[in-house]
Specification:
The structure holds two protein chains of two kinds.
Chain A lengths: L3 E6 L5 H14 L4 E5 L5 E4 L17 E6 L5 E4 L2 E3 L3 E4 L10 H9 L2 E2 L4 H8 L1 H10 L8 E2 L12 E5 L9 E3 L2 H10 L7 E5 L5 E8 L5 E8 L10 H5 L10 E2 L6 H18 L5 E8 L2 E8 L17 H14 L12 H4 L4 H5 L1
Parallel strand pairs in A: 1-2, 1-7, 7-8
Antiparallel strand pairs in A: 2-3, 3-4, 4-5, 5-6, 9-12, 10-11, 10-12, 13-14, 13-16, 14-15, 16-17
Helix pairs in contact in A: 2-3
Chain B lengths: L5 E4 L4 E6 L6 E4 L10 H4 L4 E5 L15 H8 L10 E6 L1 H12 L4 E7 L14 H11 L5 H10 L3 H5 L3 H10 L4 H5 L5 E6 L7 H13 L4 E6 L6 H4 L1 H13 L4
Parallel strand pairs in B: 3-4, 3-5, 5-6, 6-7, 7-8
Antiparallel strand pairs in B: 1-2, 2-4
Helix pairs in contact in B: 2-3
The chains are: A alpha+beta, B alpha/beta.
């Protein structure tokens, strides 16, 4: 039997949402162990049947501290006891659980995991490089510029300010002028690792679709979250806390879009998935504005793993998660050493000669 | 209705939303843990500024443990952007700051509209339980780790306390222990107190207390109690706050 652990939490602003995604996955995969990454950065094996509130005050009771070791005999351990898992179900959102950091460590520990690998994760998280890659692939994006002391934006306010890296709406603001964008980028803890600026497209529609490439390429229904909130952008609360209370869900699913737009979204979502090299389920977010379609962002580990989007074709959470697990098992990271056969070492001569 | 975009004031120390088209005459101060977007419906079309108070919304936290008076000191930096006399709307924690601001800048402030604001402390802060005091002592001596102490702290205290981080937790402790007798006695501007009848966080009794005190100080004060509303009046009944602002702007309240 496949040994599975679901991992969630993490030192990220989206820690709480990740706990929710993780606990949902644990209910669907009852054989899975539960590994919690605390906000302080340490790992814990927790009981598998916990509720959200058990995590409200930090590490839950009856948890067992784990160490994560890299190397050929790596993995999770508690003292001498090794917890050997075939696959980790990655339920992190934002921060080092989504940006490739932990993926690199799992690769070095020889553990398989769901969701994209280190490089794809980091491409998906960096909004600036992602949009450059999308444009290179021939698709449209909104203008997106790095906020610096020197830049003069080549478009008019109001602007949307976003963290350069981050998968959620946390830290996003609509501002009146570039000075405010700069001031925010200096003071907001969410923007300190870099911030980007975009034009605020009044009346733009947000259209989102989930995509997976295993067991075969599939796209979900298209949803349109509504910008009902008085803050003028989809807030973190609207986008990610909706699960807490289904009354708060403000979305149209499936969205009403004309056929040509539907086709365009589906085509581009697949192109983006291939471009980034996703594994598991990603959600690709588009903006439709005055007859134009823009690729906005990709979320490679979306909240609740975007399970709610799979109404057409209908896919159960279990189908989706089992698909992700089998995809992860089929794609272990193998470090390639082909060509390093020692020839250059045996006939290479002395180092002193190279320094001469 | 969408909130106005943010604008940086006071060298970026305050992020604020501007409303209306003419020079602002209303300053709106939000409650604890909230932000300026709460006033979106209240201030639509009103010439107003609603700042995110430091440590909330998009404004950076103060670098020291501020009380309401220090918050007011910071807001003084906005007043040159405004046309006096300025009407200050203060909800809950924002009401504490509004009262201090009216004291700080008496010539500029022309009136106060306060909702759900705890202005007078009704009883002394309860001393923490002995067990908790012992744990705190142990933490100071290094016998209890920071992580453990944090976890214990978060099991104590109100939701606001548990949610507050860093310096804002100390600000909260300082602010909830403040009471503004002197500031109320010195108020020389009209004051509208508007309260939700079902406010559980700052019950109407506390509004009556402030009302009586202001009357005794010969302040022009009115208390309006709104039935069927709890603490979050600006969001649930924005028109009630609006209706109070308008006559004050016209000077009818004077």
């Amino acid at each position: 039997m496949t040994r599975i652990a679901t991992v969630f939490g993490g030192p990220s602003p989206e820690h709480d949402v990740s706990v929710s995604t993780g606990l949902q996955a644990l209910r669907v995969l009852p054989e899975s162990d539960s590994i919690y990454w605390s906000m302080a950065g340490d790992w814990h094996l927790t009981p598998s049947n916990l509720e959200l509130s058990d995590f409200a005050d930090g590490v839950p009771k009856k948890s067992r501290r784990l160490d994560l070791l890299v190397g050929p005999a790596g993995g999770y351990r508690a003292g001498r006891k090794q917890f050997k898992y075939d696959v980790l179900v990655n339920c992190f959102h934002g921060g080092p659980g989504e940006d490739g950091t932990v993926q690199g460590i799992w690769d070095m520990a020889g553990i398989c995991y769901t969701g994209p690998g280190a490089a794809a994760s980091s491409l998906g998280m960096d909004k600036l490089i992602f949009s450059a890659a999308v444009r290179t692939a021939g698709m449209s994006t909104v203008k997106r510029r790095l906020i610096t002391t020197r830049l003069v934006p080549d478009f008019d306010p109001p602007y949307i300010v976003k963290p350069r890296s981050g998968g959620s709406s946390i830290g996003i603001a609509v501002v009146d002028d570039y000075e405010t964008a700069q001031a925010l980028s200096r003071s907001s803890p969410h923007l300190m690792d870099g911030a980007v600026i975009e034009p605020y497209l009044d009346g733009a529609r947000d259209l989102q679709i989930a995509v997976r490439r295993h067991p075969q390429l599939e796209l979900s229904a298209i949803e349109e979250p509504t910008r009902s909130d008085s803050r003028g952008i989809l807030t973190y609360r609207e986008k990610y806390l909706a699960w807490a209370n289904s009354q708060e869900v403000v979305r149209q699913l499936p969205a009403e879009v004309p056929d040509h737009l539907d086709n365009e979204i589906r085509e581009q979502a697949v192109a983006v998935a291939d471009l980034v090299g996703i594994r598991g389920i990603s959600r690709v977010d588009f903006l439709a504005h005055e007859g134009n379609l823009y690729v906005n962002e990709i979320n490679t580990l979306p909240g609740s793993l975007a399970a709610y989007l799979w109404i057409d074709p209908p896919r159960t959470r279990e189908q989706l998660l089992r698909g992700m697990v089998s995809e992860a098992l089929a794609n272990p990271r193998v470090f390639n050493t082909a060509g390093a056969d020692g020839t250059a070492l045996r006939g290479g001569g002395a180092i002193a000669a190279k320094l001469a | 209705m969408r909130a106005a975009p943010l604008r940086a004031l006071a060298d970026g120390a305050l992020m604020a939303r501007f409303f209306g088209t003419s020079r602002p005459r209303v300053l709106a101060l939000h409650g604890w843990g909230r932000d300026s977007a709460d006033f979106t419906d209240v201030l639509d079309g009103v010439p107003a500024i609603a700042p995110d108070l430091p440590g909330f919304g998009y404004s950076p936290s103060p670098d020291q443990v501020w009380g309401a008076a220090e918050y007011a000191d910071q807001l003084v930096r906005i007043l040159p952007e405004m046309d006096p006399p300025v009407v200050v709307v203060g909800h809950s924690f924002g009401g504490r700051v509004a009262v201090c601001l009216a004291n700080r800048s008496p010539g500029v402030i022309g009136g106060l509209v306060l909702s759900g604001a705890p202005l007078l402390r009704v009883h002394r802060a309860a001393r923490p339980r002995l067990s908790y005091r012992l744990i705190r002592w142990g933490h100071r001596r290094g016998l209890i780790s920071d992580d453990r102490m944090e976890s214990i702290r978060r099991r104590q205290g109100s939701d606001d306390y548990r949610s507050a981080r860093g310096v804002m937790r100390d600000v909260l402790v300082k602010v909830v222990n403040e009471s503004y007798e002197e500031q109320l006695d010195a108020l020389a501007v009209p004051v509208d107190l508007i309260w939700g009848a079902d406010d559980r966080e700052v019950p109407v009794d506390r509004a009556r207390l402030a009302h009586r005190r202001l009357e005794e100080a010969n302040c022009e004060v009115r208390l309006r109690i709104v039935d069927g509303v709890g603490h979050d009046l600006p969001m649930s009944r924005p028109e009630v706050i609006r209706q109070a602002i308008e006559p004050m702007l016209r000077g009818a309240g004077r």
